[in-house]
Inverse folding.
């Protein structure tokens, strides 16, 4: 790490804040989460813009993101040099990575080829921004890979200790509980896409081999968007070009002095050049409005290509396997799939916070267009009846933040018995574990006693369960607790009409 | 007398021997204490003192497990979990008797964090010294040979086994399969593994477990009981307030008495009948000494 500057201090503080918020994105004994890592997403201009484009309307939740755009238009890309936690991580590790020459194919228009199609796809109702959003990349890598890995390692160590020293482990218990309480995930969940999430994150770091902040200056769509806005900033560095007698800035600048003229849309205002200028010539100050160097942002063909590309992305990947659709269960409160795809930024927070680890990132279940969107897998975890955490942390309102009384009525799907499997039907024995766990006060699973003959010729009355559709909200606890190994005797299936349950159902 | 007759008489006599033993023990009829009142913590203490006081069970320095039913993410008023003040009452008694440590836990059905908090039990015990309220740790389950009729072996929670005193503190409530869930079913809370599978043959399975694992004291919370839609409830109309706490060393007797609170007879509850036939306790209300207070 270089000398401590205000930018550095700010970066570290925001990184720490980010990590603290990440750890706080968990149930901690209260039905409401005060603050969570969604604060970062709410202030994220990329997800804000893409969501607004997709929704084509106003989403109050996204106001901070737009404010950040306004500040960027005033000051420049300060977000990247002062706040972005991924950028901070890159700055922290880049000193340890030996550089080879920059990759030329990354230069130029590639970043626009990423940003434009993402935003245009939003215009055509497919919000993909989160896939390449730096904060989302970080949250997903932490949620799906790093955090469970740390949790599992700590836990297996703790269990191993028990097998060695037995109950004497209790002496260390307060320490472990503290760790568990504040640092480790409550469950060590295995996520699909953990590998992909880790690979994307590692790839971003890997790019540091070629030049500093390689991701930020050449690829990051959030940075590119902020760069576009930063061009309007009246606040700029003087002198605007390299001084012929020195050129030291080339070594100091992490992002924009790879050409002779400072690239305003790439300057992240780290102020290293000002601080280390041997001649004390550099300053950052308002200099009136002048659209950066007067150059066009991008060539026309890139612009048109981006438009067409976005349209094609939004249209080409819509195929969905119908057999997978039957089990496509969205978080509670999500009623219309197309609206969900407009708003969901795929940040992974709902999956992080889900207290039964019921939500998982979609790989192919929702088609390629649904990559990383959350879906409920009841056999792994069910939706807790009184819990509303996913709606609370969703940064874009794709999962609505509902009061518990309303959330309980929201329909995720409907449970269906498989009589070929279900113990009372198939084996003529009592079971009804599902009925016992059904959280609906009037019970959406009920039983009737039916006379049957067992294999030994005995006449018995077996309790046969059935589902009351009008009461079932598809929480999936029945499927989760079914004592059958492998395939459950009751499964929750997706339905189109997700009209909330009627509270006054007479049954 | 030939050999066959001899064997017959021998066989018959063992049966009568069994009856004889039971008659003899009738002299010492199992006691069931029933305390009534509205201060639930004190009420619980009263029920214990009717049985002769906590000192009968908890010696100074003992490690005690208090096992409430806190399996559901429901509030105290909904009657799905043991009332937090009843649990607190038991814990306070144990501490007063000089217990070195009181451990309170349950294997929950809903999310354990929500159950511990929303049952009111975690808040009720917060800040108490020498009281440990931990979530279940999978590694502590140990395979135990039961040699029962339904279950040959099962994983049971080690802390329940190793404690000096185990106090079973269920809540009395309705259950779809067993009609009621009382003391004997609450022992399921120490079972590991896929315990749902024992529902196939639950009467025998519960007798198997209870034959091997025997709580020193059973305290049934009937401060309010869930009359229908158990074991989870959720509808306040299903809850009836009785302001009673039942205590007994005989788990079958405690269950038998609690059954009457629902307007049912002990022999209607198959779990109770199976346990009685196994000789785990008394279900005949006439052979139970009621201590009211």
């Amino acid at each position: 790490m270089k000398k401590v500057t205000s930018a550095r201090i700010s970066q570290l503080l925001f990184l720490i804040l980010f990590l603290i918020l990440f750890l706080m994105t968990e149930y901690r004994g209260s039905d409401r989460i005060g603050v969570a890592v969604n604060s970062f997403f709410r202030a994220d201009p990329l997800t804000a813009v893409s969501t607004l484009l997709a929704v084509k309307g106003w989403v109050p939740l996204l106001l901070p993101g737009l404010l950040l755009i306004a500040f960027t238009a005033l000051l420049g890309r300060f977000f990247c040099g002062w706040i972005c936690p991924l950028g901070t991580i890159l700055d922290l590790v880049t000193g340890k990575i030996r550089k080879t020459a920059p990759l030329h194919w990354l230069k130029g228009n590639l970043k626009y080829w990423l940003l434009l199609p993402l935003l245009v796809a939003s215009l055509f109702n497919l919000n993909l921004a989160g896939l390449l959003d730096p904060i989302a990349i970080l949250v997903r890598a932490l949620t799906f890979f790093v955090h469970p890995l740390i949790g599992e390692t700590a836990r297996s160590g703790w269990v191993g200790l028990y097998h060695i020293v037995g109950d004497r482990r209790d002496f260390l218990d307060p320490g472990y509980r503290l760790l568990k309480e504040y640092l480790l995930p409550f469950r060590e969940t295995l996520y699909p896409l953990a590998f992909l999430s880790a690979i994307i994150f590692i790839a971003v770091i890997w790019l540091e081999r070629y030049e500093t902040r390689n991701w930020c200056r050449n690829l990051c769509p959030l940075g590119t968007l902020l760069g576009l806005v930063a061009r309007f900033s009246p606040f700029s560095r003087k002198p605007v070009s390299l001084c012929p007698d020195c050129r030291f800035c080339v070594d100091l600048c992490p992002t924009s002095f790879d050409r002779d003229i400072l690239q305003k849309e790439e300057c992240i205002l780290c102020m290293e050049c000002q601080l280390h200028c041997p001649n004390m010539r550099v300053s950052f100050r308002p200099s009136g409005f002048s659209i950066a160097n007067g150059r066009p942002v991008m060539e026309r063909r890139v612009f048109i290509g981006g438009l067409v590309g976005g349209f094609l992305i939004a249209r080409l990947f819509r195929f969905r396997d119908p057999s997978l659709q039957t089990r496509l269960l969205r978080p509670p409160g999500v009623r219309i799939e197309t609206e969900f795809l407009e708003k969901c930024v795929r940040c992974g927070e709902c999956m992080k916070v889900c207290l039964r680890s019921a939500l998982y990132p979609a790989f192919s279940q929702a088609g390629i267009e649904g990559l990383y969107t959350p879906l409920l897998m009841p056999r792994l975890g069910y939706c807790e009846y009184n819990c509303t955490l996913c709606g609370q942390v969703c940064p874009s309102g794709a999962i609505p933040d509902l009061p518990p009384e309303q959330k309980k009525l929201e329909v995720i799907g409907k449970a269906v018995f498989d009589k070929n499997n279900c113990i009372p039907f198939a084996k003529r024995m009592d079971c009804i574990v599902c009925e016992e766990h059904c959280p609906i006060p009037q019970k959406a699973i009920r039983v009737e006693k039916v006379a049957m003959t067992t294999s030994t010729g005995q006449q018995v009355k077996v309790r046969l369960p059935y589902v009351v559709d009008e009461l079932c909200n598809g929480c999936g606890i029945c499927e989760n607790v079914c004592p059958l190994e492998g395939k459950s005797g009751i499964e929750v299936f997706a339905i189109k009409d997700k009209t909330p349950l009627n509270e006054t159902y007479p049954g | 007398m030939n050999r066959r007759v001899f064997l017959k008489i021998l066989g018959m006599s063992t049966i009568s021997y069994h009856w004889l033993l039971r008659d003899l023990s009738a002299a010492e009829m199992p006691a069931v204490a029933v305390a009534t009142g509205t201060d639930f913590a004190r009420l619980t203490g009263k029920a214990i003192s009717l049985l002769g006081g906590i000192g009968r069970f908890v010696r100074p320095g003992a490690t005690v497990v208090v096992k409430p039913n806190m399996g559901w993410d429901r509030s105290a008023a909904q009657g799905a979990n043991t009332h937090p003040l009843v649990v607190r009452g038991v814990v306070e008694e144990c501490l007063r008797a000089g217990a070195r440590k009181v451990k309170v836990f349950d294997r929950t059905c809903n999310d354990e964090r929500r159950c511990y908090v929303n049952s009111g039990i975690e808040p009720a015990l917060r800040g108490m010294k020498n009281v440990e309220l931990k979530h279940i740790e999978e590694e502590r389950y140990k395979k135990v040979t039961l040699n029962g009729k339904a279950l040959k072996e099962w994983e049971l929670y080690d802390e329940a086994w190793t404690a000096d005193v185990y106090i079973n503190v269920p809540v009395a409530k309705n259950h779809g399969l067993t009609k009621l869930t009382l003391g004997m079913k609450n022992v399921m809370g120490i079972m590991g593994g896929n315990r749902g599978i024992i529902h196939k043959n639950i009467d025998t399975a519960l007798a198997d477990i209870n034959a091997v694992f025997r709580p020193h004291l059973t305290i049934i919370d009937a401060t309010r009981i869930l009359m229908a839609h158990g074991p989870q409830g959720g509808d306040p109309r299903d809850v009836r307030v009785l302001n009673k706490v039942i205590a007994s060393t005989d788990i079958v007797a405690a269950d038998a008495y609690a059954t009457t609170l629902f307007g049912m007879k002990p022999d209607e509850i198959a779990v109770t009948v199976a346990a009685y036939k196994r000789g785990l306790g008394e279900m005949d209300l006439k052979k139970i000494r009621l201590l009211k207070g």
In short: Chain A has 24 helices and eight strands. Chain A has a mean pLDDT of 91. Chain A touches chain B through 37 residues (CB under 8 Å). The longest strand of chain A covers residues 445-453.
